[in-house]
Amino acid sequence: MRDRLIFILSALGLALALVSAFIFSQQPAAEPPVFNPAANPYPKGIYADGIIESDQSQGENINIYPEVSGPITRVLVAEGAKVRRGDPLLTIDDSVQRATAEQQRAQSEAALALLEELKAEPRPEILDVSIAQVDNARASLKNAQDQLEKQQRSYDLDPRSVSRDALDNARNAEKMAETNLKVVEKQYVLTRAGAWSFDIQNQERQYAALCKAYAASAALLAKYTIAAPVDGVVLSVQATVGSYVSPQGGYDSYTQTFNPLIVMGAPQDHLAVRAYIDEILVPRLAEAGRIDAQMFVRGTNIHVPLAFARVQPYVSPKIELSNQRQERVDVRVLPVIFRFESPKNLNLYPGQLVDVYVGEK
Questions:
Q1: Which residues contact 233 (CB under 8 A, 6 or more apart)?
Q2: Dist. CA 331–CA 316, nearest whole Å
Q3: How far apart are CA 150 and CA 148, in angstroms?
Q4: How many helices (H) and strands (E) does the chain have?
Q5: What is the spatial distance between Cα 261 and Cα 71, in angstroms, rounded to a whole number?
Q6: Residue 4's beta-bridge partner residues?
Q7: In the predicted model, what is the mean pLDDT of residues 183-209?
Q8: Mutual angle of helices 164-193 and 124-157, in 10-degree steps
Q9: Domains, the chain, with CATH or none
Q10: What is the pLDDT of residues 302-328, one digit of tens each?
Q11: Which is nearest to 228 in space by CA: 94, 92, 82, 350?
């Protein structure tokens, strides 16, 4: 009985193995492709990776970095907004720099007030005091002369009427009064002349230096408000209120790198495509006037004709979009820029990767 049970179980296991082998050997039917891969529309077309960017006569997009550091206090634009040249985009905390500029402005105003004071000298009140001092000195001299004359006359009549010491004191008093008169007269001339020309020149230079220091502080203060350098569209805002930024840009917590605070592009009625041609294929590139190209949007069957714009005549190393070079062979590419009119029924954005085929007319 036991041997019969073992035989039955073995037969069932063998049957199960045969059925499993049959089931797993069946190949499932292939799923239809979501979209057809882009086919080369040219007999000898060159394939290249492309990236959409704003249409500009030079460069790529406009990367805006701050020239100063500090926390952001206001963000005045949203992504996708159209701005005019000079429109404020965001502001950075300027409290310290504003106080510094105000201090230097006050110092320049104080220097100007002192300069005007020097140029306005002498004050009428000070000149009146100097004139009074001259009159007083003249009166003192007249009094000393009268006293000496009286004592000298008395001494001439009777030498015993005035002592020799009193007569010498009267003569000394006259000389002192005469000297004092000369001093106050010179002081009057100095007062009437006003400020010394060298003092005025020195104060003028100090005022000019303080004005330039204030102008520099005001110019630096203006940099705490980042304005649009040109007319265009805000493509990306890498900033939020409270974030600390520096001339390196804003810190991206996802990529852990520093990026420009704001990326701007030209008005998007036209866009550009930067196609990277492998250096091996560069000799097959047609002349500028005969270049024809088409762009294929990845994930769709849509293709857009391109117009040749220019060649960036510098072959550079090909790098990954993460900015980390991972190729072990130094592959170099030639950037070729095309432009196209933005389709109304198709969403295309700067930074989007596309397939580009370059042929010949």
A1: 54, 80, 81, 82, 83, 264, 265, 266, 267, 268
A2: 9
A3: 5
A4: 5, 17
A5: 12
A6: none
A7: 92
A8: 160
A9: 46-59+266-360 (2.40.30.170), 62-93+224-265 (2.40.50.100), 99-117+201-221 (no CATH), 122-194 (1.10.287)
A10: 889 999 999 988 888 876 554 454 545
A11: 82
